[in-house]
Amino acid sequence: MAMEEIQQQVAAAKEAALTAIENASNVTQLEQLKPDVLGKKSPLRQLMRLLKDLSAEERPAAGALINEAVAEVEQRFESRLTLLRDQELERRLALEKVDVTLPPPHRCAGSLHPLTLTLNEIVRIFVSMGYEVATGPDIETEYHNFDALNILPDHPARDMHDTFFLAPGVILRTHTSPVQIRYMKSHRPPIAIIAPGRVYRVDDVDATHSPVFHQVEGLLVDKHVSFAHLKGTLTEFLHAMFGRDLATRFRPSYFPFTEPSAEVDVQCFICRGKSSECRICKGTGWIEVLGSGMVHPNVLENVGLNPREVSGFAFGLGVERFAMLRYGIPNIRCFYENDIRFLSQFRARV
Questions:
Q1: pTM
Q2: Bigger pLDDT: 196 or 49?
């Protein structure tokens, strides 16, 4: 293939690309056009394949010619994109222009976020039962987040795939349990606290997961605290939250910081266990809502308490999960999008 033929094809491909760019009438059309004029499979870039048919002396000049054409198309593309964006902005501003001679629009009353509403209700219930609210830092040490809670160095939760590490030994807390550790170090029993707050875990965003979400964890430590106290406390809380006519159940489970441990379920308040097609309980009749257990003796020793003299129970729940159940929200992303159409539905619940 002769150099002249390459030059003709480059000129033709460049002209076709520039014409297509100029004919795009809006940003969407132009962005959809980009793969065809600048992508790896665009006619202009495909000409690079023809270089192998040229002599060694001609290849550098032909390659430079193609690269210059690509650069010109890229420059024209960006210029056209800027122009179209400016035009769309001008049209939008013209449509949204405010006539200052008109009376001001009616101001709608604000409302609390559904997560705030749910958290406030959870806090209200536990405060009415004698609990205090405790808080702690979002940036934590590995010791307070893991070691003091009997989570061993080889536990999967300590892997970088699950935890945000900011520096050696420093992380974004994966639960609000470190608040309990700090509180037990600075206070003596009897202790009855809840620890609400943001927590962080490496997770992909989907309908039920987010890398940032909210938890409420609780702790009670005193002399002669038993599993019966744990069961009575959480049953009372769930009845106050979801209704006193709903049954609860405790299933054996495992958590490093409690022994024995239990998952807590509440009877499905949609189907009451009578529908195999219920989207909430998946036909089981039960909804998992809490993790709980008796505080592990190692945890008590780590904060300077004698497990032979005092005992305690702990529990944890996800605020987003409770809000989704309470309001029938199917997607956790709704909480974070700041969509006024969604948020305004909760105005009457303030």
A1: 0.68
A2: 196
